[in-house]
Specification:
heterotrimer, A mainly alpha, B mainly alpha, C mainly alpha, B: mainly alpha, Four Helix Bundle (Hemerythrin (Met), subunit A), 6 helices, extended, C: mainly alpha, 21 helices, NAD (chain A), quinone binding (chain A), NADP (chain A), membrane (chain A)
Chain lengths: 102, 197, 513
Amino acid sequence: MPSLNAFLLVGAALFCIGFYGLVTSRNAVRVLMSIELLLNAVNINLIAFSNFLDPNNIRGQLFAIFVITVAAAEAAVGLAIVLAIYRNRDTIDMENFNLLKW
Amino acid sequence: MTFSEGVQLVSFIILTAIVLGGAAGVVLLRSMVHSAFLLGLVFIGAAGLYVLLNADFVAAAQILIYVGAVNVLILFAIMLVNKRIPTDRPVFSPRNAVTGLVCAGLFALLAVCIFQVPWQIQEPVAMNTVIEIGKRFFSEFLLPFEVASVLLLLAMVGAIILAQREYIPDRAEGEPEPLALPERPRDEVDTTPTGRR
Amino acid sequence: MNIDLAALNAGALWPEYIVTITLVVVLLVDLISGRKASWSLPYLTLLGLGIATATLLPMWILENPVSFLGSFTADPLSVVFRAFILISAALTVLMSVRYINQSSLATAEFYVLLLGATLGAMLLSGSSEMAMIFVALELLSITSYLLSGYAKLDKRSNEASLKYLLIGAASSGIFLYGMSLLYGFSGGQTQLTEIAPRIVDLGFPALLSLVLVVAGICFKLSAVPFHQWTPDVYEGSPTPVVAFLSVGSKAAGFALAIRFMTSAYPGFSEQWQTLFVLLAILSMVLGNVVAIAQTSMKRMLAYSSIAQAGYVMIGLAIGTQEGYSSMILYIGTYLFMNLGAFMAVVLFSLRTGTDEITAYSGLYQKDPFLTLVLSLCLLSLAGIPPLAGFFGKLYLFWAAVQSQAYTLVFFGLVTSVASIYYYVRVVKLMLVKEPSPQVLGYSEAGDQDGIQTLKAGMLITTVATVVLGILFPPLISLADTSLRATPSLQQVRTATPVSRVSTGAEAPADHGR
């Protein structure tokens, strides 16, 4: 069985890849995908901890289920907003969003 | 090393390769459609890791919700929205290289932190996770469980309101624009990409 | 496993149940009677919020605040913040009636989402368990994203909501990663108070989780450097939504910050206080300096709200009883003065269709009432003596002086003086200058239903802004009692020096292993 540290490293790597995507992506949908990567990194952490440190109470698994639920809701809302934007502007490229300045 | 341990190790390595390789593809590939399919692969790989970690129920939920719902939603959005080929942006720019270095530094920091903590590993317990999760949802986690239902209801209502098409009746001259802010925009919109700082 | 219903102590959440019931009732009334009943929905919402406030007040000091097996702690601290959130939601309803009608936005869903955001904020201010914190935070955030994109045919609103969603979801991802580390460090605990003793000896890893958690929380507080979304979202969202975000959602963020820091990180209080000292100074300086350059009223109020959050953070950064109680008092006064200013902005933009600052010039000649309300609220925000904002700031700075945080006081005083410039500029414009074209074409002829409720709201907030200043001594003692009765704040020291700014970062490192 791989050790706890191995799983945590996978989680950390996934978190960093997601973070990279978050900063460099120019497309709103890709940013949403990077956020999903972050949330998956969190879930890997939670479930690894739950298995190795908390096998009796498995609170990490319950927490992960909440994360999955919320992620689904967030994705649905995000795509509704993307659709609304697309109807008004014909693009979802982040570069073209300068109606309001940063 | 027993046979089952060997199998676990090999599957861990394969799943890790799938998850991390897929994730790298999601952020680096130019084609949005390829990225979205790779994202599905990442979700499946993560579900495999959950099975290795004795979290069978979460693995099933992951496949159903992430692969079945989130990923399909994202694919829908891409197919509906992306009519043109995405912009020809170089993947390797100085800015991205700096970001990559920062992320590598972050990973190093997290890794140091992971190796520093003296984890108190406990022996695994054989149990039916579905029963245990059900019990805990209705005791310890009752309140978040109920609040999550309100959250889903509101997300549904709001998403429908935003995404549905409006049929606006003809309006008389001089009436305010419907479904817009009453404040007029400050000046004409500048949509050229160079307008950004 | 048998669950004893009494052990849940479910009665502590009656205000939340009532908000939820109101939410469902509004949805059903709209479903059944459609357009005919849509005029009644705001009043139904107000009624629900009123009943919720009425049930909240008797819960001032509960014998057993822990409910739902530790998910929620209904201590006096949470009661104060829940009351703030209910009041700000009710005032937001008052200012939205006319706004919604005039922009022909869907009525029922707006109030449903607003009630949802209120519910999320109220739950957030009492949550004491990580899964609950996360779900409540997301309930608040997701409804806020939806509300800020509510004017869906307006490109600015679309963009505001997308930006808010992307930055918000990213920051909650970072917050979650921090919480997942905490779950592991504590060996499988999710209750904040259970975590604290288990991470005391960890050193560097615990600090890493602290940084991640603070980054997540500061996004909600829009503290510099996590503020980038604020001006854009404030400018692009419907103004009543902005008003709620700047008060209700911020109050919930501060409640979360106090509870998370004092319950989960009491062993690292020096480190997180140093962190908040830096954040407070950055927010005060940047918020006030950038606000001077703004030409749009909503953007100016956005930067001013960043600066105001900086002032509130002084109380958090010094971490004493006086600090917390001055924080609560300042949020209470900020609630009324900021909502009053936003109501005036709503009324002006409904009548003239603009929120340029220059358009306000000469307003006194056409509408003295609006001018009076806006002037009093802005002067109070600037901290001019007889008004509530002055006493709020005074008490904050006094608390900081008591714990010898002179750096904070210095920055607070200097930036307050700078802030007087841009607040008074608007007041001067309205009183002294010649009327602008927009003001010349200003008429109350277009006024229809809903203007009366808006004016009632303006009256309430202005009176509160003026009167709260006089009522300060009893309010101080009220805030003090609420803090004394809050168990998680009991171990707080009464006055300790935190005058350093840059130490602490190097202090922690490695006493872990």
